[in-house]
Amino acid sequence: MRSVYWRASQTAYAVTAAPAAAPPPAIRAKDLIKPTRPGFHTVGRMLLMSTLKDRLRADLTTSMKARDELRSGTLRMILTSITNAEVAGKVARELTDEDVIDVLSSEAKKRREAAVAFEEGGRPESAAKERAEAGVIAEYLPEQLGPEEIAEIVGKVVADLNAAGEGPKAMGRVMGLVQPQVKGRADGAAVAAEVRRQLG
């Protein structure tokens, strides 16, 4: 009996005397959320998309509840265009905010061009609808550059390249440096026209 008690006491001592395991290192927020590329963040193993598409979806829901047919119809078409862009390649992908802005810019341009065509065709009501839709889209685009701001950006690039007076042959070089600066903030046709003007 004594040996049984002795073994039991030794076992209890071993259990209580064993060093406690070190606690796992604290998980910091910055370890959970890390930027990967513009528009994306990782949380653990999850990939979070940009917020612009989420904003469009939320605004669509709000406009439908408010029975705002113009806004809800426009946003529904924009989201369809975004979805089409996501599955257009060989592999489906999620669009970043920058990609979504490209889609928005393209859709806004289509509506501006359609408005002009309707005006020239004697259909003012259709032209007004296209312009109204373009106005909704513009709310989700970066602030647009004015003619003077475009001219300033183009002028700086032309000066940096010493391309003044070179004419159409310098068009590609100048546009290649101008476009990243005006992307989503200016109509491409207006930018190209300003480049041509400054190149002479």
UniProtKB/TrEMBL annotation:
Question: Which chain regions cross the lipid bilayer?
Answer: none
Q: Which InterPro entries match?
A: Asn/Gln_tRNA_amidoTrase-B-like (IPR003789), GatB_Yqey_C_2 (IPR023168), YqeY/Aim41 (IPR019004), YqeY/Aim41_N (IPR042184)
Q: Where is the signal peptide?
A: none
Give the protein's recorded name. Answer: GatB/YqeY domain-containing protein
The record lists the organism as Nocardioides panacisoli
> What is the phylogenetic placement of the source species in the record?
Bacteria, Bacillati, Actinomycetota, Actinomycetes, Propionibacteriales
